[in-house]
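Preliminary data (for renewal application), 2-acetamido-2-deoxy-beta-D-glucopyranose complex.
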Amino acid sequence: MADSGESVNKDMKVFVVDSQALPPPVSVRRDDPRLSVIYLLLAVALLGVFIEAGLIWHLYSRPAGPSDIQKVEYIKGEKHTLPSSSHDSNEVLPEKPPKAESKPAAFLQIASPPFSRNGVLPWRSDSFTVFLRGLQYKNNSLHIQQDGYYYIFSKISHMENCNFFKHQVMQRTERYNSMAIELMQSSRFICVTNLSQSRGNSYLGGIFHLLKGDSVFVKVSNSSQVHGDVYENFFGAFMV
Ligand SMILES: *[C@@H]1O[C@H](CO)[C@@H](O)[C@H](O)[C@H]1NC(C)=O
Ligand SMILES: *[C@@H]1O[C@H](CO)[C@@H](O)[C@H](O)[C@H]1NC(C)=O
Ligand SMILES: *[C@@H]1O[C@H](CO)[C@@H](O)[C@H](O)[C@H]1NC(C)=O
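Predicted structure:
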């Protein structure tokens, strides 16, 4: 009896100790409503991240639309549109300066003899160094074919024999009813008694805005005073 009671006591004791020392068993139940809400929020957040990643990828992989290119062309002031094959690049290229070879230019040498009754000097446009590009030469004048700013120059070698000498570059334009307008002038009056020293030079050069149809020519007060070789007397223009 005592033995069995003791063993019963021992058993009871162990049971009591166990039941007090261990915390009550907590089972993780999957149907807890709080946990379901957390899972739902996590799923929504992940979905949002994926959608955002997709939008960013779409934005960066979007090809340049034709509307962008037309905008660029409008800024550049060009009327024609780009070829449709250039969609693979949306880079804005800087505007190219006009090619120097395509700009109008001319260089003329004095005709010989340089005689002229009204003082408008005649030129030769057919020798080795002279040329005409984008400008016409007729009636002793250079005729402008393209609107723009032109540097016009003329050099004249003349005698200084107690005669007044005037060198002019003139313009004729419909804006002034085709009357001759003076652009540049130089005048000299020098008496040199030693004829071998009686040479003077006049150089004129300046930039002018000229329109298509305008013409420029060189006039002197007395064409008999013009002196020297073809490379001493010239007239030219070029677009700047
Ligand atoms: C030619 O030039 C002269 C002198 O500048 C001018 O009087 C004449 O009207 C011009 N002729 C023509 C056809 O342009
Ligand atoms: C004229 O000038 C030339 C060159 O300077 C000189 O050799 C000549 O002696 C001068 N003649 C006179 C008359 O002064
Ligand atoms: C023009 O120049 C020549 C040569 O120098 C001269 O003989 C003539 O008198 C000049 N004419 C006038 C109107 O000045």
